[in-house]
Amino acid sequence: MAHDNKKDDLLRWAVSNRETLKKHILFATGTTGTLLEKELEIPVIKFLSGPLGGDQQIGAGIAEGKIDMLFFFWDPMEAQPHDPDVKALLRVAATWDIPVACDRATADFIFTSPYMNKEYISLIDEYKSYTNRKI
User: Fold this and answer.
1) Which residues neighbour 103 within 8 Å (Cβ) at sequence distance 6 or greater?
2) Angle at alpha carbon of residue 66, lines to 6 and 61, rounded to 5°
3) Residue 8 and residue 36: Cα distance in Å, rounded?
4) Per CATH, which fold does 4-131 belong to?
C-alpha cells in the first residue's frame, strides 16, 4: 500500500526487491496493486482503493491470517480523508503482531531479517480471554 505521494518510493523499493517479492503472495489496494503488477510483472491480488474500503479489506486479511506482513508507505506530511481507516489498519496489524513497514528503511530491515527465509511463530494469544468474556 502507498499514499499517492509515496507510490513512486514503494515502486522503486519493490523493483529493487522483485526477486524476493515474487516468492510471496502479494496483496494491495487498488491503484497501488495495479502499478505494482505492471512494474513487477508479478500477479497482485487487488482490493478496493484505500479510501473506498481497501484499507479495511487489508485489515480483514490480517485478522483472518491471510496477510502476515504489511508494507504501507504512508505520507506523514499529507492529511488523508481516510485517516481513521489507516489508524484502524495499523491497530489491527499491531493486534495480530505482524511486521509493519511504513518507509523504505524499515522495509529494507524486514527484508534482510533472517525471518524472511524461515517461519516466525508469533507468541500472540489470539485474545482468547477477550473473545470468551461474558457480556
Assistant:
1) 9, 73
2) 60
3) 10
4) Rossmann fold (3.40.50)
Residue ranges of domains in the chain: 4-131
Q: Which three cell numbers stand for residue 27?
A: 496483496
**Distance separating alpha carbons of residues 40 and 76, to the nearest angstrom:** 26
What is the number of alpha carbons within 13 Å of residue 1 lying toward its C-beta? 26
Please state, as a whole number, how many other Cβ atoms lie within 10 Å of the Cβ of residue 5: 13
DSSP bridge partners of 101: 71
Q: Which residues are catalytic?
A: 55
- Angle, in degrees to the nearest 10, between helices 54-63 and 83-95: 10
Cell numbers standing for residue 20: 524476493
Give the three-class secondary structure for 29. coil
Is the whole model's pTM more than 0.90, yes or no? no
> For 16-58, how does the pLDDT look when each residue is reduced to its tens digit (9 = 90+)?
999 999 999 999 999 999 999 999 999 999 999 988 999 999 9
